């Protein structure tokens, strides 16, 4: 028998002891092993251990102050960085990147954060008033996490509603004419229905359970029902229908030589046919049933030759149990295992059926939940009701499953209950760490599976795992040999990294690099790339933005190379789904929008008279404008559709742009009132001496630094808004809007020579983000620091760092704001042993008399 080759005993034993403390080796005699050291469970465990020992995967979770936001509001977050196996505070990476991507997956904001001891980091992202409403993607990752791809990033689809339009009346109503047109568009298209045989394949003559998932073009689950038909359109098995978010299951026994399809009826009454996977003439089937405290696992085989004994291997985040082999026959008779849940930690259990040659034949995911959450957080206020601007004392009690106090750190938010519960099934710390962080693809409403347990939620979670893909490792790759060398390093501090390539994108090893830093300190360094053409410069203090010029040359001195600095993880992907029912929001959403807009009116009434944000849309003529620009008025690259500048510079016909002269240098002397001083990248920009203008790149506000990384040859046009015509953007210093060719939907990428980046590049490396302090007034204090009108909106308290004492207790105080009604406090945290916890509490604020 050709079992996997044995690896070195000493290192493997240590790895297995750490990663697989539940390793079971009983019942292996059926494999007729020549020696104990060659038993297949140990060899497979060694491969899993080697993977985790090399990959050392990380996870990150963000606790947000609210699940849903409106334009003009601020996202407050606290990050928990942990190791992916035990969920203990991570000790690897010390730099965390948090990014907000637009509905078109363009970078809107990035926060580079220093990870504090305990794997914690906190920050904020302010959503601009003029930001387009839609579904945004909030993601977080470390440089080390990039080695396994974006599927391992923290990713959360975040609804941003048009809560702060440019014009609202006193009641908080938005005039229809000022609503962002792009936000009212919804995605339409055919519903996609996919079928997933349990275990991986349909095998002729073996009973099959098939999971299915119906997904609308918006990416959300669709309600369907249907019937499986054979090639002669005869019904097979019972009719089926989706149970939760378009997911469900059906069962039948496929016949040899048949092709099956499903006739599916959608919610609107239309019908369509979808194929099922092809039927295999022979192979294995794996069936798993959740019986409460255990899993009942059944395996079958059909084929021309006896398959020999089959081994069932189970794995939960590196903890491995190999169950006793069972002698399969070729006539489809079942063998079974009784798998107790109590032997595993909570999380996704990965069942794999191996044949006698240690080759994986069938796989299945299930979920282990041993009792309630291990960490319990109870929040209790000192009174049942409070007045406006009243002091609130809230106590937190943290205990483990047995009721014993726990010393830990946690974060807490207090928000208006309608906003805090607007997305009641949004993810939480438990659903992320135990479920979604180990699954491929987007999981809709993950919090649903971790609410009050019912037979319906248990069945829905099992349906999800029948249809959602495993992503931690693939057995084929794991058994093939050593893992590839990591491309991205563990960052203990800020670093400038990248690769030097030839004109054909092939990495150039031992390339000579010149490093010149001009800010915040001046220094000159030289170095060479490694065998993969990569370079890395470290030693930045992170206090200020570093301005660095890199020049690359070949070993022999040639300059025909391309220096490609690493500017972060790619943002490519399909557009995100639109907001649900944005034209006719639900009562809960409508109430939230009304509250937010009413607060916005109050804020504007208290702004200084000369604040440019007091300019109303009615003060600016934006209708009936002539087509002045080569960029259409309704172009999707515009931040505000229909708003066109009086000044336009056509880069497409400008010789200097084709030669790669920096963008701001090209504007110098071509726009009246525009003053640009200094040399790239240290240029100062002003319009009519009114301060630094806003920079808008393809409809997104960016820092001027971003423009330095763009080749002018990639720019189609630039518009300059001056004076009052820039007021609609909320800009006192004017606006420079840059439109790239690549963002044009009709753009075709150039080919041929001359299109590569130069060997000389200038990079601005941002320092660590300085998180703003959440506003906390103290009404009635000896030192008065509270304004007449409270600027807090839906979130009235946020604290990312609270610590319980030896009794598991902590307390915090805050003051209520101007609003009345119910408010919800939400706390989330993680113990040093990796146990997640969440708790909520409520307070009531009486209306002001």
Q: What would the keywords be for this entry?
A:
receptor, single chain, Ferric Hydroxamate Uptake Protein, Chain A, domain 1, TonB-dependent receptor plug domain-containing protein, disordered N terminus, about 850 residues, five-stranded mixed β-sheet, about 10% helix, Plug_dom, mainly beta, eight-stranded mixed β-sheet
Measured on Cα atoms, how large is the radius of gyration? 30 Å
- By secondary-structure content and strand pairing, the structural class works out as mainly beta
Give the strand tally.
Answer: 46
Oligomeric category:
single chain
Number of helical runs?
A: 10
Instruction: Please state the average pLDDT score.
Output: 83
CATH topology of one domain: Ferric Hydroxamate Uptake Protein, Chain A, domain 1
Poorly predicted runs of 5 or more residues:
1-36, 165-188, 607-627, 751-757
What is the overall shape?
globular
First-last Cα distance: 84 Å
**Biggest sheet record:** 8 strands, mixed
CATH architecture of one domain: Beta Complex
